[in-house]
Amino acid sequence: MAQPFLDDIRILDFTRVLAGPFCTALLGDLGAEVIKIESPDGDDYRHIPPISDGTGGLFLLLNRNKKSLSIDLRSDEGRRIVHELVGHCDVLVENFRPGVMERMGLGYPELSAINPRLVYVSISGFGQTSPMGNLPAYDLIIQAMTGFLDLNGDPDGPPMMTGESVADLTTGLFASWSVLAALLARERSGRGQYVDVAMHDCLTSFLPAALAQHFYGEAPPSRVGNRHPLGAPFGVFRARDGHYTIAVLNPKQFARLAEAMGQPDLSRDERFCDNGRRNENHEQLKQHIEAWSGTRSVEEVINALQHHDVPCSPILTASQAIASPQARQRGVLRAIDTPEGTRITTMTQPVKFSGMAASRSSPPPRLGADGRQVLSKVLGMDAGQIDILVRDGVLADER
Predict the structure, then answer these.
(1) What domains does the chain contain, in order, with CATH numbers?
(2) What superkingdom heads the lineage (predicted)?
(3) Which end of the chain has a smaller Cβ tally under 10 Å, C or N?
(4) What's the pLDDT at 115?
(5) What pLDDT is recorded for position 183?
(6) What would the pLDDT profile of 20-57 be if each residue is shown by its tens digit?
(7) Does this model's pTM top 0.90?
(8) What are the strands, taking DSSP E only, across the chain?
(9) CA 214 → CA 64, 202, 207, 220, distances in Å?
(10) Residue 161 three-state SS
(11) Where would I find the H helices in 63-149?
(12) Are 315 and 242 in contact (CB under 8 A)?
C-alpha cells in the first residue's frame, strides 16, 4: 500500500474557526504536515462549548492531524520566523479578512518572493476583490447573501437557516480542492500561485436547482418546504407514528411506488403521468400517499417501499445516524487517544482510496505543544534560541 498521498507536503495554517480548519484537516488526513499558527489565546473554537477536558468539541473535530505553533505575529521576531518557515513550506492557508496578512508583511507578494513555489490560499467571506468590501462574514451571513437562506423553510414561514454551517463547510471543501489543483499545476510549471476562495462564491455554486429555476424556469425560485422544488414525490411524508422520505425521480420509480401503495393505476393518472405534472399537482399526490402511509408505522411503510425498490428512508436523528451500522462500517468517525490518555472521537476524510491506506489520525494539538519541535526540526533552532523566544513572549510554550 502506498504512503499517504501528501506525506511530503508541508502546510502553514493560519486559519481558525471552521472553513479554514476544515480545509487543512482534510489535507492532513491525506498525510500533509500541517503546522497551525495560533495566537497565544488560540483558535476561538478551543473555547466554544461543548467543552471536553478543557477543549471545545468543534476544535477537537476540525484540528486533527495538526501541530500547534503559538507565535505573537504582532512582533517583528514572530513575523521573521514566519518568513523563515515559508521557505520550507509548500502551502499557506489563511482566513483573515482581506488585507490583514498584507498589513503584517505576510501577503502573497512578500512570501512568494521568499518561496516562488508557495501555494498561497486566502479564504474570505466575499473574496479579495468585492463590492462587499471588508465586511465580516459568518456562515449565516453568507446563507442570507446568496439566497440560500431564503430557499429554506415553509412557503408561508420565514427563511430558515440550516442546522449545520453549510457555507463554511462547502468553502473548506473547495479550498482543499484548490490546494490539490494548485499543487498539480506546480508540478507542471514549477511555480506556486495565489488562490482566492470566497464563501459567497462557493455557496452560490451549491444552488443548481435555484439557478435552473431562475434562468430556465417559468417562476423564480422560492421556498417549498420539505420537498424538492423541481420534482415529486421527493420530500418528507407522514406515517402513523412519524415521518419518512421518498425520493422518486423517474416514471419507473413512480410506477413502483404506486404498486407498493396498492394503487397501480395512479401511475397512469393524467395528473401524475410525468414529473412535471406530479410537481404541479404535488398537494393532491401527497394526499394520496399520506392516506396510504398515515395508517401504517414508519417501519411498515419503509419495508413496503424497499420491497418495491422505491428510494426511501426513515428520518434518523443525528445520534441515531452516528450510531448506525452504516456509519460504523464506513469508518467516517474514529476514536483516538490523546497524549494524556483520554479517548476522543474525531472525523476523518470520507473517501476510500485503493492506493492509500486509511486516513491517518493523530489527536488535535494542545496550544503551542509543537513549537519547540517545529522550530528545531524545520529551522534548526537550538534550545537556547527557543528559550529566548519564549522569554521575550514571541513563542507561547505549553511548558
Answers:
(1) 10-205+325-396 (3.40.50.10540), 234-315 (3.30.1540.10)
(2) Bacteria
(3) C
(4) 98
(5) 98
(6) 999 999 999 999 999 999 999 999 999 999 998 889 99
(7) yes
(8) 10-14, 33-38, 51-52, 55-56, 66-71, 91-94, 119-124, 194-198, 234-239, 242-247, 312-314, 333-337, 343-347, 395-396
(9) 41, 18, 10, 5
(10) coil
(11) 76-86, 100-103, 108-114, 139-146
(12) yes
What's the maximum distance between 2 C-alpha atoms anywhere in the chain?
A: 84
Closest CA relative to residue 365, chosen from 37, 135, 49: 37
Chain segment 143-185, per-residue pLDDT in tens:
999 999 999 999 999 999 999 999 999 999 999 999 999 999 9
Which among 149, 127, 134 has a CA at the least distance from the CA of 200? 127
**Euclidean distance between CA atoms 239 and 262, whole angstroms:** 16
- Using DSSP's 3-state secondary structure scheme, residue 20 falls into helix
Q: Are strands 194-198 and 91-94 parallel, antiparallel or unpaired?
A: unpaired
Query: Which residues, listed in sequence order, are joined to residue 13 by a DSSP beta bridge?
Result: 36, 93
Which active-site residues does the annotation give?
168
Helix (H) or strand (E) holding 22: helix 19-29
* Residue owning grid cell 411498515: 300
Pick from 336, 313, 339: nearest CA to 398: 339
User: In the prediction, which pLDDT does 359 show?
Assistant: 75
Q: In this structure, are strands 91-94 and 395-396 parallel, antiparallel, or unpaired?
A: unpaired
Inter-CA distances, 294 with 47, 75, 86, 231, 367, Å:
46, 67, 63, 22, 54
Q: What are phi and psi of 25, to 5 degrees?
A: -65, -40
Residue 182 identity (one-letter amino acid): A
Taking residues 359-387, report their average pLDDT: 93
Rounded to 5, what percent of the chain is helix, strand, coil? Answer: 40, 15, 40
Residue 77: other Cβ atoms inside 10 A:
14
Band (188; pLDDT cuts 50, 70, 90): very high
